[in-house]
Design goal:
The protein is an alpha+beta fold. The chain has 2 domains: 243 residues, no CATH class; 206 residues, Metallo-dependent phosphatases (Purple Acid Phosphatase, chain A, domain 2, 4-Layer Sandwich). 17% of the residues lie in helices and 30% in strands. The strands form 7 sheets. Strands 15-14-11-25-26-27-28 form a 7-stranded mixed beta sheet. The longest helix has 17 residues. The protein starts with a helix and ends in a 5-residue tail after the last strand. The N terminus is likely disordered.
């Protein structure tokens, strides 16, 4: 492993400054924003849950999931490249009352939600890719090749009020090929060791910095890392039916009802799932069709609750993906599987109340704005996972569009580096976007005004 250098020093300094040093060898903590408000989560190697101190009053945390090893279930990998998921840790939780100001567990402070959110960090696709089917073995032990710890430290130092993760937290599906030295010995599979290595350990400074809005990625579908997602990050109550242990429940569990998180001052973020959507239009007889149609109806209803709405979901609805066929690269809509269903309800695709879409899945940073009344699309899938093999073009071909009727007026992308995105509120419907490289350099600056956005380094 390379010397941690400035990143290691920054991580240590952040832990000391925030009081976020670990209270036990296997303890992680965060605050998750969900449909019922803020929830404190603690993952500990103790067999029982600790008390939580909220504004000077001690309360018992409730058990979310006990330590267990879950029997091996079908995954997307070969049987010999899968294994049972071992969770030798206890997951605990406690709802936080609105207006809570000082929160701590075992002497560790937790960030309190703010009534008006002004500074947001957006990250996505943060795990280290190890996938035998694609012959993809990212150098997980090399912090230059897998820099999520650096990204988390930089983003935490920016002092956000909220963190939005647009999905794909855990990518260590299969064992490292022994011929690849820089991932040799890495944890793999879907148990706690892989979750800790891919997310909780490198992301610790950012977990301590602000509450989180956690969108689910396709790598957290039940046939992948869904069991850990349900134990640790999903904001809804956990039940046996929603634990991703029984494949018979996968269809229902792989799509969650959208919910809204208020940002104060007339703004909100709606969080949707639908990460199971495919790249092709969803057929009418596909069970997911009815799910996505119902999700859109909920999004439309929720979008009326605020004057300005971010829609956060892992797979982009109005973004571009660069693909290759017969050695020829070409552009394609990022997720036709959602777009096709939404367009049946309204040719405009998104409800009128949605202003900006925040997504990941495509391993780049991307911005698209439209003159046709569609919401701006931002993609922030560039925070740690191996970059896409086929990069986006520097400029769009004439007439390029990610959806029928969507007329592109501005496009920008950054395809050759890792980093994070920030949003700074100017008004409820005005936000400044900054794109930061892993080394702290400002790579681009954009302005959001309602549904439209413009970047200084534009590609159209």
């Amino acid at each position: 492993m390379r010397d941690r250098g400035w990143a290691g020093a920054l991580l240590a300094g952040l832990a000391a400054a925030s009081g976020a040093g670990q209270a036990a060898a296997e303890t992680s903590a965060l605050v998750v924003m969900g449909p019922a408000g803020a929830v404190a989560r603690v993952i500990t190697d103790a067999q029982s849950c600790p008390d939580i101190l909220i504004d000077g009053r001690a309360r018992a945390m409730r058990l979310r999931a006990p330590a267990a090893t879950v029997a091996q279930r079908p995954t997307l990998s070969k049987v010999e490249l899968s294994k049972p998921s071992a969770f030798p840790v206890t997951a605990c939780e406690a709802p936080l009352p609105r207006g809570a100001r000082k929160i701590s567990v075992a002497g560790r402070p937790l960030p309190a939600p703010k009534a008006v959110v002004r500074r947001i960090v957006v990250i996505g696709d943060t795990g280290c890719r190890m996938k035998e089917a694609d012959h993809a073995y990212q150098a997980c032990n090399d912090e230059a090749a897998y820099p999520f710890a650096h990204v988390a430290a930089r983003a935490a130092a920016w002092k956000p009020d909220l963190v939005i993760h647009v999905g794909d937290y855990q990518y260590r599906e299969n064992p490292c090929n022994e011929a690849v030295a820089d991932c040799r010995g890495s944890p793999w599979g879907y148990g706690w060791d892989a979750w800790k290595a891919d997310f909780f350990a490198p992301g610790a400074p950012l977990l301590a910095a602000a509450p989180w809005v956690a969108a689910r990625g396709n790598h957290e579908d039940c046939a992948r890392a869904g069991q850990g997602w349900m134990r640790f990050l999903d904001p809804a109550p956990l039940s046996a039916e929603r634990a991703c242990d029984d494949p018979a429940s996968d269809l229902a569990t792989d799509d969650a009802t959208p919910y809204a998180v208020p940002l104060g001052g007339g703004a909100q973020v709606i969080v949707a799932d639908m990460a199971s959507a495919g790249n092709k239009p969803t057929a009418a007889d596909d069970p997911r069709h009815a799910q996505f149609a119902a999700d859109r109806a909920v999004i439309e209803r929720l979008s009326r609750q605020a004057g300005f709405t971010f829609l956060t979901l892992h797979k982009p609805i109005l973004g571009f993906a660069a693909l290759v066929k017969d050695d020829h690269p070409f552009l394609a809509p990022a997720t036709s599987g959602i777009q096709s269903v939404f367009a049946e309800a309204d040719p405009a695709i998104l409800p009128e109340g949605v202003d900006v879409i925040l997504s990941g899945h495509i391993h780049v940073w991307e911005q698209v704005s439209f003159s046709s009344g569609h919401p701006s699309q931002f993609i922030a899938g560039f925070s740690g996972t191996q970059e896409d093999i086929v990069p986006l073009p520097s400029t769009l071909p004439p007439g390029a569009s990610p959806a029928p009727g969507a007329k592109v007026e501005a496009f920008s992308s950054w395809v050759d580096g890792f980093g994070y995105m920030t949003l700074e509120r100017r008004a409820a419907d005005r936000w400044t976007v900054k794109v930061w490289g892993v080394d702290g350099r400002l790579m681009n600056r954009c302005e959001i005004h309602g549904k439209r956005s413009r970047c200084e380094k534009a590609s159209v």
